[in-house]
């Protein structure tokens, strides 16, 4: 090899090998292989007998020794691990071979106790190729032996390099409209193919594929196109896309010839329809034919247009890379005698911000700045500015700046220049800076407005003099910092696109970003679904029945779909509809001309397959009515009708879950009308018969097609309907395992984590620490653990060359923990297989990359681990609300809302009823009893024994009528309590606990509550003390005259009450008027009378008078407020004629307010002093309320069995 590193030498004084001088800025070792060879491996050692070696390095390669490219492994890792001593050999086999003449070893890190030292060896073999050079006005035409050729299989392979971003590489077309075109467009390769007749099918057979990026970098790129019929494989530099063409035809018909390098205009050699290719091609093959070899040998099949040569001319464009966005710069001197300034250069970047150029002018404090602002060029001088279009697109752009006299002009690419007029003559100073401001010039006012330029630059010309980067590199011209010469280090970080689920990728120089808008996913790479995985999960969030989006495979490749969730008290059904759920009448069909109906579901078959597999049970009803229409041939059993399952397989059973048995539901139930047949229809009667059945074998559902074939006889007819797909349960949501030993763990197969990993799980534990999850590899591992010091943490260990992170890992409690990276782990352990402390507790619903692991099945065969996770109801989470009782099940829990005024799966759905005039609900207690002496299991679980007299009442109401009876309770001892609305709409609470004394009457607020708005009332009495809360802003405490209890309650009535002795006149009047409006969620102690009236109509305990209609008070309140708002607008409009009177009144009011202001200030001071005096008294009065203590008792009771709370990560 030959070292070309300036001021470097191979030392023989004490050790053999290469080592640069410590003052050398060009620290690399370059190897000249004399000709292009295929390099397959490299090996390194340190300097012999010395403390000098390189611990990591980059490998660069070049055909010319000027334009270099960094070698990267398959996962874009750009550095190689080096040596740890001077004598050991570290060998690296390249992930893909490179064909090159020059190699450059660029040290990144070296011996901590010594210096850089290298001995290298390169492995490979000879490489020969046929090369053709196209100058932008030339092409090669490969002519067929016949007028046209038609192929069903094509293979085109080539390698190319170019410095132009556009140009046609391959083109062929036929008269009927077939064509194939491979072209370079903005540095990307695009393949266009059409196989159909363009006149008959204008667009059905066309397909376009785009691949690659930054391919105009003067380096070789490989292309392979493989087509077989409609299937196309398109490969560029080891990246492959697989597509299929549309249309009807499979063959490609090309007339006369294929052109390489351009599309020549027929009859005019040398003229082209599109931009032709400018660069080199090698090893160009079409269906096994070496095109360049034929051209070199001047074979008649090849016709050359223009000047095509067979050696590759190398352009002398040399690039430099500005590496740092804060400190990269290139400072160049200017001729002091020059009165004008012209600067031209080409740049390439992804960054939207940065300073490209700064030039000092002779006038003090004046500078000419060229900035990138939001991706656009901005040329500024004082307050004047010129601006261009967006240029931060990774393409090469040419910029020209000219300054002379009173003008400054800016030109970008081929656009006309923009000119800026100056007030004074501008003359350039002694230097200009490309990139950021050097730190030594900070005192002179040079500061980066945003960031320094970070990107590539080439072809810098100042005042018509090209800048020689070699002189700059050797320190003979100007000054620089953080620049890399002879290489453009730009990378397309969006290729491959790490943004999943159609997320849109954008990038800067150092990183990429994913826009997940509208994808249904979130996270750094749009990996995590924003939707729940099932209807069962929606139930856990408290949702009621309705249409919801679910994502059955979570972060997997399938998108979300909309289903109907029928959330009942005992089961949650997922309903997926299709295009034909109505009854269909069939006549005149036979096996030769059958009736066929295909079913298109609202979800794809892949989504349905995932949904069905995750469900506990699925079913689909098939209604089938027949008259002289058989399902099976009665002679030989041949099916006359059948249906197709989701895999397209024919099925001939019509009920149940036993596939392969040709029978109907009546056979399973043993009640067919003719026991000689397995289906009612096979009796072949002229009367209507029924063979309706429910299909429940999951692996066959849903039904995708039905075929009816026996309705062509006289009087023969069939009617059928295939219902929606119904599934219930989530097999994996409650899939859990309990760990009782620290040494126990569940082992699962290898996890292949490509670009990202997401892991989610529920857990609960009382242990302060333990490992949840461990992904173990040869050198890498990911561990998620609970730590007593840090609560919850994730540990990700990466061997330097073994794992490549595309985004930083993160973990969230109560949301999905996303770990992004590329690894291949040898094993996946739930718990820990290492020496870390194991996890004690429960884990359920462990999901990794959209796949839920079956913990229960593994736990059955693992010591120290058991299936399931008991104690869902005993956790501290509020699973059932509003006094609903949580009941444990084998898979999860259900809420018993019997003693709650609410309904729904979590006892959160309000139960509302609209009362009309004369309507009432009376709940009669089963036998005389005292509320506090009822020792049933239910009451003893609810009521504490701290008081002998207690009532807890809650309800919501909406009305516009007064007076009104809301609720009244009476006893066998002529006691009662009543809640009414008085004539003025105020709420009144009446208590008559002693029939010999006057009743206690309380009016919590004087406001009119009969205003058409929804109000919530809560009353709690504890002995003499009564607490009242109205809506959210009124909380009051009252004292009754006695602490007697309501003895032996007779009944509770909502609405109208008639003829009751011992009731006061005002209460009697309100009772006779009843209640007109909406009552909701009525609770009296442990009873829910309104709910009982709806669910137990006809019961002897519930008496309903008048018409009661289930309603929704909340919706009625919204409508009422809307009408009220519109009415106010009309009132204001009607008063517009009184503007003058209003003005006079306003003046009087203003004077009055001024007088009141003085009085208010005095009264406020007096009240403030009084409030301070009363504060201590109120603190004593407002001790914790009994109902709060009551709730605390319930919480304590529910937590006693198991204090473990369940978390989701």
TrEMBL record:
<dbReference type="Pfam" id="PF00008">
    <property type="entry name" value="EGF"/>
</dbReference>
<feature type="region of interest" description="Disordered">
    <location>
        <begin position="1"/>
        <end position="21"/>
    </location>
</feature>
<keyword id="KW-1015">Disulfide bond</keyword>
<feature type="domain" description="Laminin G">
    <location>
        <begin position="930"/>
        <end position="1113"/>
    </location>
</feature>
<feature type="domain" description="Laminin G">
    <location>
        <begin position="131"/>
        <end position="312"/>
    </location>
</feature>
<feature type="domain" description="F5/8 type C">
    <location>
        <begin position="1"/>
        <end position="125"/>
    </location>
</feature>
<feature type="domain" description="EGF-like">
    <location>
        <begin position="870"/>
        <end position="908"/>
    </location>
</feature>
<keyword id="KW-0812">Transmembrane</keyword>
<feature type="domain" description="Laminin G">
    <location>
        <begin position="319"/>
        <end position="488"/>
    </location>
</feature>
<dbReference type="InterPro" id="IPR013320">
    <property type="entry name" value="ConA-like_dom_sf"/>
</dbReference>
<feature type="domain" description="EGF-like">
    <location>
        <begin position="490"/>
        <end position="527"/>
    </location>
</feature>
<protein>
    <submittedName>
        <fullName>Contactin associated protein-like 5b</fullName>
    </submittedName>
</protein>
<dbReference type="InterPro" id="IPR000421">
    <property type="entry name" value="FA58C"/>
</dbReference>
<dbReference type="Pfam" id="PF02210">
    <property type="entry name" value="Laminin_G_2"/>
</dbReference>
<dbReference type="InterPro" id="IPR050372">
    <property type="entry name" value="Neurexin-related_CASP"/>
</dbReference>
<dbReference type="Pfam" id="PF00754">
    <property type="entry name" value="F5_F8_type_C"/>
</dbReference>
<feature type="domain" description="Fibrinogen C-terminal">
    <location>
        <begin position="526"/>
        <end position="578"/>
    </location>
</feature>
<keyword id="KW-0677">Repeat</keyword>
<keyword id="KW-1133">Transmembrane helix</keyword>
<dbReference type="InterPro" id="IPR036056">
    <property type="entry name" value="Fibrinogen-like_C"/>
</dbReference>
<keyword id="KW-0472">Membrane</keyword>
<keyword id="KW-0732">Signal</keyword>
<dbReference type="InterPro" id="IPR008979">
    <property type="entry name" value="Galactose-bd-like_sf"/>
</dbReference>
<dbReference type="InterPro" id="IPR000742">
    <property type="entry name" value="EGF"/>
</dbReference>
<feature type="transmembrane region" description="Helical">
    <location>
        <begin position="1139"/>
        <end position="1164"/>
    </location>
</feature>
<dbReference type="InterPro" id="IPR002181">
    <property type="entry name" value="Fibrinogen_a/b/g_C_dom"/>
</dbReference>
<dbReference type="InterPro" id="IPR001791">
    <property type="entry name" value="Laminin_G"/>
</dbReference>
<feature type="compositionally biased region" description="Polar residues">
    <location>
        <begin position="1"/>
        <end position="11"/>
    </location>
</feature>
<keyword id="KW-0245">EGF-like domain</keyword>
<comment type="function">
    <text>May play a role in the correct development and proper functioning of the peripheral and central nervous system and be involved in cell adhesion and intercellular communication.</text>
</comment>
<dbReference type="GO" id="GO:0016020">
    <property type="term" value="C:membrane"/>
</dbReference>
<comment type="similarity">
    <text>Belongs to the neurexin family.</text>
</comment>
